[in-house]
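Async update (no meeting this week)

Hi team, since we skipped the sync, here's where things stand on the single-chain job. The sequence we agreed to prioritize is pasted below, unchanged from the tracker. I ran it this morning and attached the output directly underneath so nobody has to dig for it. Comments welcome in thread, and please keep replies under the output.
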Amino acid sequence: MNTLCRCLLLLPICLLGCREADPNPLAFIVTEEDFGYAESAQYDLVGPEVTIEHLVGVAETILFSTDRGDILAFNTRVAEFYALMDNVATSEIEVDGHRVYFCTDQGMYRLDLDKSLELERIATTCEHIEVVNDAIYFTTFEADSIQDWPNQVFTLVDGQVQRLSDLFPDMLGKLAVLPSGEIMALSMCCSGSIYRLDPEGNLIESFDEDAYHFSGLQDWRNTWFTLSENEFILVGKANVGYPDIASWSVDSAQWTDLLVPETMEQETAPGDAKLNYLRTASFTDVLALNGQLYITTSNKGCLGLFTFDLAGGGPFTYDDFTVIQDTRIGEDQCLQGIYHDDELDELYIYTQRSVVKFQ
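Output:
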């Protein structure tokens, strides 16, 4: 082989349509974004020694938990804080209308904003929760107070805890209730399986990692669910590398790989900066809204807000992926989470210290 041929073989191969390296490698970052809303307001909620863990908004009230064990409410109209509970570890907050539910290590608590700011304890244990039209579904690690039925799906009937699901040889954790009333439950332990249940909790089928093509679901803390119309979207990211993003269609009962690295890379030059952001970011929360998949980033990879355009149905193209680093929603681009009030169409994006409300 002559010298010219050897040199050609060493050059990176670029498929048809590949982009040349951008002279401004960070030109892809969007620095102003109103998300389709006319107004926005920022609220500082805690000091530098405290971290917001979970946050939701209902009309004029922002409710949040902190790493100090507090549950607090902030009224945006009068700019006043209210202490609801302390010395409690909160794992999740869920909203159903004007009722707010808190999963804590001391039980499940309900707050009815139409009545008062008093918390009502309605179950002795709770780890993850979904509430749809007053129907409460939850999971727990504890077995003591629920008749030795740990790690299953439960509901409340007339104030009494009842096991909804079949008994599984697995630890069920995060839940999603589909528009059909069916339930998706993620294994919290060893199998990495997702269980599809009917509204009564009976097992319809289970999916292992080969079904939804994830590289690994060993840690449920790095896995998130969200719903987009009749699509159940699953996002996973535990380490440096491309995230796993897949959707399951209620209509076709089929899985689709939404993010295929080869599809993203074939449109770019080697070493593309935007794709490097995608590989190195640490995810904290996800939300599907108005045809977009939003992902907040924090911890060791504070790179702002990622969005993916869901209109094409996947796999995502390079142009479907956007990076937003708007200083209104995070001076250091460390975002803790994102929440949407479906009733009032208000969007909340929060950091470890503050929140921006779009309306």
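Quick observations from my side:
The two ends are 66 Å apart (CA to CA).
Residues 1-16, 143-149 have pLDDT under 50 and may be disordered.
Reply here if anything looks off.
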